[in-house]
Amino acid sequence: MTIPCRFFLFLLLPLLFLSCAKNLPRIDSIDPSVGFLGETVSIYGEHFGDERNESYITIGDYQPISSAYLEWKDNRILLQVPDFGDSGLIYVHKNGEKSNAALFSNKAKMPQLAKGIVPGTSPVITMLNPSAGSVGSFITIQGENFGTSRENSAVKFYWDVETPLPVSQNEQTSVEVSAAEFGYDTWSEREIRVRVPDGAASGSVIVETPRGTSRPVFFEVSGGPGTKIFKDKRSYTLSYSADIRVSESNIPNTLYLWMPMPSVSSSQKAPRLLSRNREPFVENHRGTSLFQFKDLLPDSSNIVTLSYVVDVYSVETAVRVQNVRPAAASAMTNVFTNASALVPSNNDSIIEKARSIAGREQNPYLKAQRIYQWLINSDNIVIESIDSGGAVEALEEGRADAYRMALLFCSLARASGIPALPVSGVLVDNFRNTQKHYWAEFWIDGLGWIPVDPIFGAGAAPESIILRQNYAAYYFGSMDNQHIAFSRGETTLSQMDLGGRIFTRERGYALQNLWEEAVGGLDSYSSLWTDVAITGMYVN
User: Fold this and answer.
1) Which class in CATH covers the domain with range 118-223?
2) Which of 3.90.1300.10, 3.10.620.30, 2.60.120.10, 3.40.50.620 is the CATH number of 324-478?
3) Which strands make up the sheet holding 26-31, listed edge to edge?
4) pLDDT by residue (tens digit) across 85-127?
């Protein structure tokens, strides 16, 4: 009886695959996992090979020099840790294959116990459940000493950025869970449930409380429909002010000023205060600092000047469209798909146009792309300078500037069931000049917020701005480092006194409903809000 060769191949192929899989390098543990740069770390596992040959290790995207390898065996590698930065993932590379990751943290850069903190009261993470997930998914952090409520505490995830090597010791390597985007679900003494934040990458997770900071625990970001790359950091120093001049007043009176701060996102790190000439009445409330002036006299002048340093990265996304799924129901997606004063996604004309653009398409990424392409087509929307109106007027008139365009994109996206938010801030040209600008972001589960600038995509940037090549494709999903955001979404603030007289700035560099409030005998005054000025720019 003759057995066909195909039968032998059928039996042999699974064995070949199993054989190859068994020979992949695998890390079981490293010792120590927290240590000092320059000391020796032992990497335990299997299938490293009896000799190093062309194999190598990467740690925090840094490849050690040959003299750093003290021993290389099939089940153990001794490595002198290079000066690579704060913390990083260790991989073993062999025959073009890469092992699983192990996290090494620099002990010298780990948060130290603050004075007055009793040992044993710092937070401790014992388990993450699950230990892997995508951006936007929820995980439960179990442990102890988290505190009964969050208050000033935070959960931070490792954040990966493409930077020139060696990595700067001061490079920020974490992204915080966003309370504004409903990232904190529950918080108790022994358990925290959070949403994996936009910009998170595989690496350490820590819990920070007023009583101390936990040791990092590894979390793998996986299962998303694409990747994000953050690079080309620019550090800006910027300043702006509000000058108040009183003509007529009677005692008592009060004036409140809400001054916006540069916002925080995965591509724009928390601003660092450089200077201010007056202490705020309320610090950082919903992205603004509230200043109070009491009993202002006639013919008096008062000024508030703020100066910050903010780091902005360009961001580029690569999306596997076939893996994109509609956003899961949550508090965040509900808020950013609902209609609002600035984003009238429930308007009949908006709804009808959104349906017409989407057609039968169900993929949220492709629907957002169709909306963007419709907007940048000059046959649909003519781009010109306009001083009033919003999304509905843009659609009805077929005319839009950056403000109208950002609101129309968000309105059409929300009407299509896609979470979206308008972004307000300033553009910085190569001469350090600024001007107000508006763009947008939309949410894709597993990947996070995706930037969109329809005005730039249509090629209608100011003459002093050099657009990226293939700008129509680039500004859907990617963003340069010349956009500085002051608000993401709409900032709704409450009056300090219901009898106060309020002043709003519809097209300010932040989308907030309150800027000034006069209470009592402040009968006549004027205010001058300066433009945002760039006083320094540093390119890494």
Assistant:
1) mainly beta
2) 3.10.620.30
3) 26-31, 40-46, 76-80, 69-72
4) 666 788 899 988 888 888 887 766 555 444 444 556 899 999 9
